[in-house]
């Protein structure tokens, strides 16, 4: 893949993530890419597998889902922040993407468990198992800022892997989250977006090496939109861990992504949240 075109894709994806309420028309994105609008869309679709409109819609709806679940902002504010001209247009788009209205999604709190549906006032329950894992090495990009924006870094990582033909040497996608968002300001949260490498010697110079040690972990199996992971963490740390009698190790939690929002409905996304234990 041409590095010039690769850089253009990354520049446009960054622009979409950073300007969800801005002008994300095909002409504007062609300007960001510094390409003719007659050819830009074909290049973007050919290199990403998405149309520009699909990418914009996906980013806007993910941002909206996170704001609905993780903040008290009004639906009108969320709609405006995510680039919709009206609440009605936002509601139609959100229902098409998530199968329910924004208000219903917020009321649900995105606490749906793959096994149990909590009664009102109860905490959700998520299946957790303990196991021992080997050491793994990630090729990763760092991120500092709100965790809900780390998707931007994962997209950049995916395009680097494609450009440098790393996928034959990758066996999974993992996020490493170093700080507690309940204790650290969103702008200061640290994380890595990474892929698990079968041969660490092949990590390119523009990616960082992150080593995860072998040992026991508690694995919580979460099914649903990424916006609901906060509730899953609350259950894992607030309920399961105290009742289990396990002790944590001095290593950060990680998330293993078992499928992709690029081709999977939000309710069918599968994430393993892994907490190192002694």
Question: Concise description?
Answer:
This protein is of the alpha+beta class. It is built from 9 helices and 8 strands.
Structural class by SSE content: alpha+beta
Estimate nothing, just give the exact number of structural domains.
Answer: 2
DSSP helix fraction: 25-40%
CATH architecture of the largest domain: Alpha-Beta Barrel
Low-confidence stretches: 111-121
Provide structural commentary:
With 278 residues, this protein is of the alpha+beta class. The chain has helices spanning 3-18, 26-33, 37-48, 52-70, 75-81, 87-98, 102-108, 151-163, 229-244, and strands spanning 128-133, 136-144, 170-177, 190-197, 208-212, 215-223, 254-257, 270-277. It has an eight-stranded antiparallel sheet with strand order 1-6-8-7-3-4-2-5, covered by helices on one side. Helix 1 (3-18) crosses helix 2 (26-33), helix 1 runs antiparallel to helix 8 and helix 5 packs across helix 6.
Q: Which properties best describe this structure?
A:
Multidrug-efflux Transporter 1 Regulator Bmrr, Chain A, 9 helices, eight-stranded antiparallel sheet, 2 domains, alpha+beta, 278 residues, single chain, 8 strands, Arc Repressor Mutant, subunit A, 21% strand
Helix/strand layout:
Blueprint: H1 3-18, H2 26-33, H3 37-48, H4 52-70, H5 75-81, H6 87-98, H7 102-108, E1 128-133, E2 136-144, H8 151-163, E3 170-177, E4 190-197, E5 208-212, E6 215-223, H9 229-244, E7 254-257, E8 270-277
Antiparallel strand pairs: 1-6, 2-4, 2-5, 3-4, 3-7, 6-8, 7-8
Helix pairs in contact: 1-2, 1-8, 5-6
């Amino acid at each position: 893949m041409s590095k010039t075109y690769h850089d253009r894709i990354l520049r446009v994806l960054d622009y979409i993530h950073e300007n969800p309420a801005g002008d994300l028309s095909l002409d504007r994105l062609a300007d960001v890419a510094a390409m003719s609008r007659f050819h830009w869309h074909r290049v973007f679709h050919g290199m990403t597998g998405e149309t520009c409109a699909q990418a914009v819609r996906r980013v806007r709806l993910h941002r909206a889902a996170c704001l609905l679940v993780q903040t008290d902002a009004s639906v009108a504010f969320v709609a405006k922040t995510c680039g919709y001209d009206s609440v009605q247009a936002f509601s139609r788009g959100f229902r098409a993407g998530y199968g329910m209205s924004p208000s219903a999604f917020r009321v649900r709190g995105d606490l749906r468990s793959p096994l149990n549906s909590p009664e009102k006032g109860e905490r959700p329950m998520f299946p957790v198992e303990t196991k021992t894992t080997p050491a793994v090495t990630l090729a990763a990009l760092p991120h500092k800022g709100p965790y809900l924006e780390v998707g931007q870094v994962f997209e950049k990582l995916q395009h680097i892997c494609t450009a440098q033909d790393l996928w034959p040497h990758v066996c999974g996608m993992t996020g490493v989250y170093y700080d507690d968002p309940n204790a650290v300001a969103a702008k200061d949260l640290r994380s890595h977006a990474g892929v698990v490498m079968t041969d660490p010697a092949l990590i390119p110079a523009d990616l960082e090496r992150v080593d995860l040690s072998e040992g026991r972990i508690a694995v919580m199996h979460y099914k649903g939109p990424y916006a609901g992971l906060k509730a899953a963490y609350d259950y894992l740390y607030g309920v399961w861990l105290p009742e289990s009698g396990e002790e944590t190790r001095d290593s950060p939690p990680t998330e293993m992504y078992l499928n992709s929002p690029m081709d999977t409905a939000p309710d069918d996304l599968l994430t393993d949240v892994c907490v190192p234990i002694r």
